[in-house]
Amino acid sequence: MELTARQLAEVLHGTVEGDPEAKVSTFAKIEHGKPGQLCFYANPKYEQYVYTSRASVLLVNADFQPKAPVAPTLVRVENAYSALADLLKYMSEQKKKYRRRRSLRSRIAWSAKLGAKVNVGDFVTIGKDCRIGECTVIHDNVTIGAGTKIGSHCIIYPGVHIFPGMVIGDRVILHAGCIIGDDGFGNAPQPDGTWRKIEHLGNVIIGNDVEVGSNTTIDRAPMESTIIADGVRIDNLCQIAHNVVIGKNTVMAAQNGIAGSTQIGEGCILAGQVGIVGHIKIADHTTIGAQAGVIGNIRKPGQVYFGTPAILHKNFLKSYAKFKQAGEE
Predict the structure, then answer these.
(1) Which domains does the chain have, with CATH numbers?
(2) Could you tell me what percent of the chain has a pLDDT over 90?
(3) Residue 210's Cα: distance from chain center in Å?
(4) CA of residue 3 relative to chain centroid, distance
(5) What pLDDT does residue 100 have?
(6) The pLDDT of residue 315 is above 80
(7) b/e map of 76-98 (b: 16 or more CB within 10 Å)?
(8) What is the rounded distance in angstroms from the CA atom of residue 125 to the CA atom of residue 103?
(9) DSSP bridge partners of 76
(10) Using an 8 Å Cβ cutoff, are 292 and 252 in contact?
């Protein structure tokens, strides 16, 4: 898709400084910019490349004052970094062509109801009484169990398995290979030392604007629901156990493991490989550093925790300093 500097300024509510007809069709990092490409400058440490870039158009903050001549046409916006995100979203939406398609190699139950312009790929199975909203795209080799409800404008990538009775909101993205609603890890110990499986009859409820990464698993509850609230972002290879509740706009990086019945607040940030025990509560806007292990409740919102067992960041740094000194003696 080709855009002129003038069109970019209209889309991003910016102003043009230079040739308004300068054309771009691809993106590049500012240090790699070539003719026909759009770059952006937001971080001062990359300013040297502003004066050497050969890109056709450069997206910059409105208050940027160059210290030397600049070859690219400048499009000035309020926030170049945010504007780039807006532009990428715009480009993505322009490329989407919502159209009704149902592959002859898919299997859709007669009682399932699909909204307008739903796109169904090859070897997809959609069970009885499913409800799928308009403009949802279902890629190849997806399984959607009976009675599942999926909202509008969702993207379900290849190899996703959605078990029966799940509820998924609007504009949800499920990346390749993720599993929504399999049995949780529930086993009751028996007097003879064996384990008895606990049946899981609940479901998973995923809110609007949620993204779930590749090969992540979200288990259904034995009773009631595992809940992923609106705006949550979950990376690849995460494990969300039964009856977990994750609050709005919380972000989880790769390889997180959340044990059963834990409640995570709104706006939390969990870095990579965080482990959280079951049946605890984590306050809103908590940040947990990479590889931390949380073994108890976090009651005060807005704090940062590191380490295993996880402790306040400032205490972790003090402890680490002493530990490092001890190792050097």
Answers:
(1) 3-95 (3.40.1390.10), 101-317 (2.160.10.10)
(2) 81
(3) 7
(4) 28
(5) 76
(6) yes
(7) bbeebeebbeebeeeeeeeeeee
(8) 11
(9) 15, 60
(10) no
Assess whether the previous peptide bond of 309 is cis (omega < 30° from 0): yes
- Sequence-separated (6 or more) residues with CB below 8 Å from residue 91: 1
Could you list the active site residues?
242
**Tokens 């910059």 found at:** 60
Strand pairing report for 3-4 and 23-24: antiparallel
Say what the pTM is. 0.78
Digit-coded pLDDT (tens) for 278-313: 999 999 999 999 999 999 999 999 999 999 999 999
Angle between helices 5-12 and 80-95 (to 10 degrees): 100
Whole-angstrom distance, CA of residue 150 vs CA of residue 10: 34
Specify the pLDDT at position 2: 86
Report the alpha-carbon distance of residue 250 to residue 300 in Å, rounded: 16
Which ranges constitute the DSSP H helices of the chain? 5-12, 47-50, 80-95, 313-328
Cβ contact 44:26 at 8 Å:
no
Q: How far is CA 50 from CA 44, 85, 87, 204, in A?
A: 10, 20, 20, 49
User: Two tokens at 69?
Assistant: 């001549």
Cα end-to-end distance, the chain, whole Å: 62
Confidence of residue 121 (pLDDT cuts 50, 70, 90): very high
Measured between alpha carbons, how far is 235 from 218 in angstroms, rounded to an integer?
Answer: 12
Distance (Å, whole) CA 97 – CA 292 = 43
For the CA atoms of 135, 136, 138, 144, what is the dihedral angle to 10 degrees? -140
Q: How far apart are CA 176 and CA 141, in angstroms?
A: 10
